[in-house]
Design a protein that fits this description.
- 48% of the residues lie in helices and 13% in strands.
- It has nine helices and eight strands.
- Strand 5, helix 5 and strand 6 form a beta-alpha-beta unit.
Length: 254
């Protein structure tokens, strides 16, 4: 191991410690994800702000990536509702500055994406995902993978925007159990070492199945979102962590 690699371990540890110390004092929160490039006048911006505002009305705070676009809208809605507004910012060479709607002492900067994602997972009681790019999809599938592999306890994941998400086949056996589809839209060609599409007829059939699955997911997510918003009070962290540990979620209970 090189000397600079050894010192990087201490930098990583310091980010975990700083994040844990700051996040353990917040109230129950929901993470909201989406594009950093969404303009303030866009419908998705207004929708994210309204969702955050409604969540704060039911006792939940909001965690975002701390940047502009959808993240800014969610933090703005949380502040407008008088709720906790947290920003987990990432240092990048071309973006991003923390938005002005994050609570004082709740804006945390990270150098490492994986440390930042641990904070999102550990301290959220649910994910709400609006249209976004690679970063948004990365955070979504990180959570789905951890749930599917039972590394963490299940929690609500709501995809907002049917037109944007309906072409995304989450998988043959989603962790929430709302679909019985057994086929997938892609197959691996091991001899060629790459990926190829199935025949046109098979591809059309798969697309129909994906659309049906998206409709099932939309209904399930909408029901779960209503349950979330109608909650009389948030679940205490101690009870949530105890339940997560009982379900075999070491990360959520750590």
């Amino acid at each position: 191991m090189k000397a600079n690699d050894s010192w990087a371990i201490f930098k990583i540890m310091s980010e975990f410690v700083e994040g844990f110390e700051a996040m353990q004092r917040i109230r129950p929160c929901v993470s909201i994800f989406g594009s950093a490039r969404t303009a303030p006048g866009a419908p998705e911006y207004k929708l994210a702000e309204e969702i955050a505002f409604l969540l704060t009305g039911h006792g939940y705070g909001v965690i975002t990536g701390g940047g502009p676009g959808i993240m800014e809208a969610a933090n703005k809605g949380a502040q407008r509702g008088g709720g906790t507004s947290v920003g987990l910012n990432i240092d990048l060479p071309f973006e991003q500055e923390p938005n002005p709607y994050i609570d004082k002492e709740k804006s945390i900067n990270f150098d490492y994406f994986f440390v930042r994602k641990v904070m999102f997972i550990k301290y959220s009681q649910g994910f709400i995902v609006l249209p976004g790019g690679f970063g948004t999809i990365d955070e979504l599938f990180e959570a789905l993978t951890l749930i599917q592999t039972q590394k963490i306890a299940r929690f609500p994941i709501i995809l907002v925007g049917k037109t944007y998400w309906q072409g995304c086949s989450i998988g043959s056996s989603p962790p929430w159990g709302t679909s019985t589809t057994t086929s997938t839209p892609w197959t691996w060609n091991s001899s060629a070492g790459g990926q190829r599409r199935r025949s046109r007829g098979r591809h059309r059939q798969v697309l129909q199945q994906v659309h049906a699955e998206a409709e099932l997911l939309r209904s399930a997510f909408n029901r779960r979102l209503l349950e979330l918003l109608r909650a009389a009070r948030p679940v205490p962290r101690a009870a949530r962590e105890e339940a997560s540990f009982a379900e075999g979620g070491p990360l959520a209970a750590a």
